[in-house]
Write a sequence for this structure.
């Protein structure tokens, strides 16, 4: 039991205390993952998933700043609610557009739908 | 505070690992299902940030709505019967470099700027839902109404756009 406790203490000492910066770093990495998905994936639905990741990263930042502000004001959480509302609307419209593209071109690969170029 | 730290690290790990699976998986079904764990991990982070109402909203809307919608999109636009559900990537190496630079810059900037900012001593209002409801009815009433109009427009627009045209 003692060894377990000492191991626990050492492990807990190795991990730094969670502060505002930890949440911001998680948000930053999630944002970069979403950017990568938007930039590289050919499937339009994967691009939409990348957009959702980016919006989630922004929401983490909003709520983290709201929690760690001096008087814990709720403006960040209110902004996050509106982000979630717009994400729902964006997903519905995006999926409708993707379905239309699929009916017209028989593919959802965004690099093959290039008839506007000609 | 120790338990808080451990819970944070566990859920941050779940969020980022499943986010990596979403982004790097070749199979779009695997991506969609690991997006589920990403959303749950983000909801857990919201709970850790004392945003319980937003965590429930996240689960209801993202997992219950958006993820199901994305799965419907996957099922409707891929030939599910065929095994070939793989999706390619374009320009993976430059995008990987740019994404790494973005992540490093943002994380480094936020760490160097906000390092050492802990939980403020003064506790704010305790009831999240009541406070948010009052804010939506007072200081955020105009964005609230605009959001309802936007949702109505999105509803009608999505239904009109996705509808199959009769004579074509």
């Amino acid at each position: 039991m003692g060894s377990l406790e000492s191991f626990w203490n050492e492990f807990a000492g190795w991990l730094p205390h969670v502060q505002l910066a930890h949440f911001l770093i998680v948000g930053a990495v999630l944002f970069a993952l979403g950017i990568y998905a938007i930039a590289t994936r050919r499937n339009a639905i994967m691009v939409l998933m990348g957009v959702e990741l980016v919006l989630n990263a922004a929401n983490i930042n909003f709520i983290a700043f709201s929690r760690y502000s001096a008087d814990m004001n709720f403006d960040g959480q209110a902004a996050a609610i509106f982000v979630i509302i717009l994400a729902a609307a964006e997903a519905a419209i995006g999926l409708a557009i993707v379905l239309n593209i699929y009916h017209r071109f028989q593919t959802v690969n965004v690099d093959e739908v290039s008839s506007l170029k000609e | 505070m120790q338990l808080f730290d451990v819970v944070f690290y566990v859920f941050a790990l779940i969020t980022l690992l499943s986010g990596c699976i979403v982004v790097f998986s070749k199979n779009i079904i695997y991506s969609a299902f690991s997006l589920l764990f990403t959303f749950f991990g983000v909801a857990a982070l919201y709970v850790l940030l004392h945003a319980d109402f937003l965590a429930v909203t996240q689960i209801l809307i993202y997992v219950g709505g958006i993820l199901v919608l994305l799965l419907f999109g996957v099922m409707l636009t891929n030939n599910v019967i065929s095994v070939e559900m793989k999706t390619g990537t374009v320009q993976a190496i430059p995008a990987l470099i740019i994404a790494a630079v973005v992540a490093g810059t943002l994380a480094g900037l936020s760490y160097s700027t906000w390092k050492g900012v802990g939980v403020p001593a003064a506790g704010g209002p305790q009831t999240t839902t009541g406070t948010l409801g009052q804010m939506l009815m007072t200081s955020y009433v105009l964005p609230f109404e605009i959001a309802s109009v936007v949702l109505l427009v999105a509803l009608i627009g999505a239904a009109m756009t996705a509808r199959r045209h009769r004579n074509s």
